[in-house]
Amino acid sequence: MDSILRCEQITASYGAKTVLRDVTLRVPRGRILGLVGSSGSGKSTLARVITGLLAPAAGKLYYDGRELSPRRTPDERRNIQMVFQNPDGSFNPRKKVGTILGDVLLFHHRTDRAHLRQECGRLLERVGLAEGDLERYPLSFSGGQRQRIALARAMAAGPKLLILDEPTSALDVSVQRKILDLIRSLQQEQKLTLLFITHDLGIVYDICDDVAVLDEGRICEVTPSEEFFRSPRSARGALLLDSVPRIPEIAGDGALSIRPEQMGQEERHEDQMPEQKWAGGTA
Ligand SMILES: Nc1ncnc2c1ncn2[C@@H]1O[C@H](COP(=O)(O)OP(=O)(O)OP(=O)(O)O)[C@@H](O)[C@H]1O
Ligand SMILES: [Mg+2]
């Protein structure tokens, strides 16, 4: 399969503490790869290595078949963008949204000053906010709106590969759904490749084409989603699935179908239903 990014035997550490060990992973182009694993397994660290924020202690990264050096060119930075696990910490609270987006557009030569305002407005509208919001400061928005701004900022660079680190974990279920819909439509429209980090297997079930499982800094399986939810290949994958409550689904007209995002809102009928579907939950 055509990979946009390859990690070859990546090892990464914080001081004396080794967090990633021999991570080899291919990110298939144009698809959504879910990266799951327990808290502390190294998911965010791998994201930092891929975006160039953390230099690996060993191993190599290839983007489009070309090796990425630790000092990325602006073009290499543009191609791989990230939405952080905690977007609030990534905003300068003294910069208006218009400046935040404008800086990225100008840095990557995505527009000139004459069209800057218009381009910023277009970006903001694409993520469901209004042009007038360019004048506001990030912390004056709700959590869901801030996540939209973080998405707009990442999209401002014009990336090919977007890494989303738990982009909806701090949001309530209904907002989560809207942000996921937005992510999915951006992915299709811009033909993006996504690396979607989450501990929520309901989301993986919903939107990911493939699942990679990280266990204490090692990749223990990469499996097409459909197969993963039927029969994970690794013990850690099976354990993650076992820790998620199952909910039923019956196919056909008038059937009961509880989608993962409705978990906790619907009554369960486990013992009556023949078929089971994976629900969202904390892995
Ligand atoms: N800046 C840092 N300095 C030292 N250790 C760190 C640092 N960041 C993360 N770690 C440690 O590295 C390990 C992996 O952390 P990482 O944040 O990559 O995990 P994660 O899989 O993203 O977890 P979570 O699901 O909780 O976000 C953890 O043991 C963590 O404590
Ligand atoms: Mg993390």
Description:
- It contains 9 helices and 12 strands.
- By secondary structure, the protein is α/β, with parallel strands linked by helices.
- Strands 6-7-8-3-9-10 form a 6-stranded mixed β-sheet, sandwiched between helices.
- Strand 4 (58-63) and strand 5 (66-67) form a beta hairpin.
- The radius of gyration is 20 Å and the shape is globular.
- The protein starts with a strand and ends in a 5-residue tail after the last strand.
- Residues 14, 17, 19, 37, 39-45, 85, 199 line the site of adenosine-5'-triphosphate.
Secondary-structure topology with pairs:
Layout: E1 3-14, E2 17-28, E3 32-36, H1 43-51, E4 58-63, E5 66-67, H2 74-79, E6 80-83, H3 97-107, H4 116-126, H5 143-156, E7 161-165, H6 173-190, E8 193-197, H7 201-207, E9 210-215, E10 218-224, H8 225-230, H9 235-242, E11 246-248, E12 276-278
Parallel strand pairs: 3-8, 3-9, 6-7, 7-8
Antiparallel strand pairs: 1-2, 1-4, 4-5, 9-10, 11-12
Helix pairs in contact: 3-4, 3-5, 4-5, 5-6
Bound molecules: adenosine-5'-triphosphate and magnesium ion.
